[in-house]
Hints:
This protein is α+β, with helices and mostly antiparallel strands. Helices cover 30% and strands 24% of the residues.
Amino acid sequence: MKQKLIYLEENLCSFKPLSPNFKGGKGEYQKAEWLKNYLTQKKLGKITEYNTSDERAEKKIRPNFNLFYKGQTDQNLWIISHLDVVPANDTDKWNSDPFKLKIAGNKLYARGVFDNNGGLCASVLALESLKEKNKKPYFNVNLLFISDEECGNKYGMKYLLDNFTLFKKNDLIIVPDAGDQNGLRINIAEKSPLWLKFTITGKESHGSKPDKGINAAKAAAYFTVELDKLNKIFSSKDDLFSTGSTFEPTKKLANTENINAIPGIDVFFMDCRLLPSINSEEVLKEIDKMTKTIEEKTGVKIKREIAMHEPIAPATPKNAQIVKILTESIQKTKNKEPYLKGMGGGTFASLLRKKGLEVAVYCTTNDSLHCANEYCEMDKVIEDSKVFERVMSNNE
Ligand SMILES: [Zn+2]
């Protein structure tokens, strides 16, 4: 199975499937074509395309496609992985070409080798293994491969949900895109992301004459400290999540070219992740109070904008069928007890949960995703594929 995994990864990692949102990104077209070809040659089922158009992408296509393999029953199982990757970024920090697979013992290195090729390969290898054993899966197996996960899902999951009725209420859905390093964590909920942009407007002046201006950078610093109080105000905990709500200043725009100028404008962003019990309106109310305090103290004007907000999605119930089947499958594969958690990072599972669908986010992960020298451990991907094979067979 290792050789098969290497063959898949070697090819899948070679295409630079970057969203056109990123400089030089041509989209996922070539990677999807290669994968469709592979699945067709292996006779792994019927492929249906749900492509969407994007003027900026190669062939103007953002590919989405499903591989359907008939099971013994009419109930559908979906394993949904994404084709796109994030840029390699600092190529200096890579010890090898990010778009050429490097093999070192049990580890494979390349951009996308783990996120999300790990989950993708595990799902393909699971179905291949069943087919080789001449075993018909218990459920109809749907391996869905989609675009645009890293840049907002517009051409991927959002497009599919808005334009097709692919999913039914009793479908079983796995998103193999997060978990823990032991493969025991099943994620059944996500925090609600709230991203904010603040524009602080003061008055520009010469660096030697601060009294003639109003320093927007200094006001932004005071404001950042004030905003940190959100952590105390909204400090409630939730057993499902290992951390509470988080409120972090993140991106900052350049304010002035010169060291010797008092900046008249300062723009920064904040990434808030809210627990289900926290109302985003309440958070915004508190922020607006803080805004007033800083405006009065410093004389600046502060404009608040919402850069992105996904309202909270309901958690997948702890006793959902997919959770039960996956739990049993992990127990049988690893001889260990899995546990249920909520996560701070976002996946498209929350879009599905909002439609009333039950989704388990599960795979064996590591801490290299989105970093230089991204890697996957082959034995872990193969074990995930065994877990998925058992799920496909309903643990029979
Ligand atoms: Zn991912």
